[in-house]
Design a protein that fits this description.
alpha/beta; Nucleotidyltransferase, domain 5; 2 domains; seven-stranded mixed β-sheet; five-stranded mixed β-sheet; binds adenosine-5'-diphosphate; binds magnesium ion
Length: 384
């Protein structure tokens, strides 16, 4: 086909060409619930995907502030649209920053602005949903690559939570025939993937990762996080509040399950505010985060195992200490770097892998992890 004498590529031709590549290069783009940065990974696909480049581009403070307002339901459709477009441009720029060696596909998670995995009554009907912004058409146009975006809705439409989607990628990246492993991501929320040496992967969100800590740090200092856990390090755990937090109904809910800022973000921080000094509240939040992670970890372990920890939370030393002191016997805590993947890169790498599966029309959700009724092909494909 041609328009004004210029050939227009057909999506089917582009996909056929992509599928013929033995080791295609895929850019994975991610901005997590923390909305701190756009992470871009260039991954060479193969039996074990290989990370070629990784860069993290902090979001401008003004953009974070506006996103925060949208998260809190204070954004007009026009504001959301402008952010959607702007993030499309910023995601495209992040992709280009790792594309110098050449890339064959871009896979963008986008920025989640709302995630409602549980059915809610709305206008007399039951609704659920998930919404990620960062216009894919802009990314495809600027990068000149086939682009996959909107990974989560297909799983939700099949009855799943739309999250976590990383387990399929985790199995490819981390499976070890000699040791049971657990991949733990400390992003805004914390999620784990159980990767037994033999057997099926399982996964769930365990509760907050950094979200509660960030929200408290914001109230205490006006800064987006407690750098290194410095404030929390000067505080004491408040046992009464910790016990109260551990009684949160999310913790006892059976998997599959996923959670978000709605449950463990600013609203919860606001309820805790004033019940102790900021240092003690931060220390207690770190203890709660670690304890809720370990509560879930223990549901999977069956002896010796390794926990591979990634995500921005590894930079919070107090959180890492609180995790270490709760480690079950025979379990080692390793940073993802120790198995060859930068701690911050894992989610961007995971979406590169998921995009590759989508380009092959292969399902990549793990129904046991998300609760979907069947495996589904994830995402929407856009032609440059
Ligand atoms: N130096 C640091 N000290 C304390 N916390 C940090 C530091 N660096 C990153 N973090 C935490 O990690 C979060 C970002 O982690 P990330 O894995 O990118 O999460 P998400 O996937 O939600 O974007 C930040 O919001 C912050 O809470
Ligand atoms: Mg992030």
């Amino acid at each position: 086909m041609s328009v004004a004498g210029r050939p227009v590529p057909l999506m089917s031709d582009l996909l056929t060409r992509y599928r013929a590549l033995e080791t295609p290069r895929v850019v994975g783009l991610m901005s997590g619930t923390s909305a701190d940065a756009i992470d871009a990974a260039l991954v060479e696909m193969g039996p074990r995907p290989r990370l070629l480049d990784f860069r993290s581009h902090p979001l401008p403070a003004e953009v974070r502030r506006r996103l925060q307002e949208v998260f809190e339901d204070r954004g007009s459709p026009r504001e959301i649209l402008r952010l959607h477009w702007l993030l499309g441009e910023l995601f495209a720029r992040a992709a280009l920053s790792v594309m110098e060696p050449g890339a064959d596909l871009v896979a963008s998670h986008g920025q989640t602005i709302a995630h409602l995995p549980q059915a809610e009554d709305f206008c007399g009907e039951s609704v659920r949903g998930t919404l990620q912004i960062g216009e894919g058409a802009v990314i495809a146009r600027r990068t000149g690559c086939l682009t996959v975006c909107d990974f989560r809705p297909a799983d939700l439409a099949a009855g799943g939570q739309g999250a976590p989607l990383v387990p399929h990628a985790d199995a490819l990246l981390f499976r070890d025939p000699h040791v049971d492993r657990l991949a733990l991501n400390l992003g805004g929320m914390a999620n784990l993937t159980w990767i037994p040496s033999h057997g099926e992967v399982e996964a769930c969100d365990t509760g907050p990762g950094n979200a509660l800590l960030d929200a408290l740090a914001w109230r205490a200092t006006g800064r987006p996080c407690d750098e290194g856990g410095g404030l929390a390090a000067r505080g004491q755990v408040l046992p009464e509040i910790l016990a109260e937090l551990m009684a949160h109904p999310y913790l006892s809910r059976p998997a599959p399950k996923s959670t978000g800022r709605e449950e463990f973000g600013r609203a919860l921080a606001d309820r805790l505010w004033g019940r102790g000094n900021p240092e003690d509240l931060l220390r207690t939040a770190a203890a709660f985060t670690a304890a809720s992670v370990m509560l879930h970890v223990q549901r999977y372990l069956r002896g010796e195992a390794q926990i591979l920890v990634g995500g921005g939370g590894v930079e919070n030393l107090v959180l890492m200490v609180e995790l270490s002191r709760r480690l079950p016997e025979g379990v080692r805590l390793l940073r993802m770097e120790e198995v060859g993947l930068p701690a911050q890169a894992r989610e961007a790498v995971a979406f590169a892998i998921l995009g590759h599966e989508t380009a092959h029309f292969r399902p990549a959700n793990v129904p046991r992890a998300t609760g979907a009724s069947c495996p589904v092909v994830l995402g929407r494909i856009l032609v440059p």
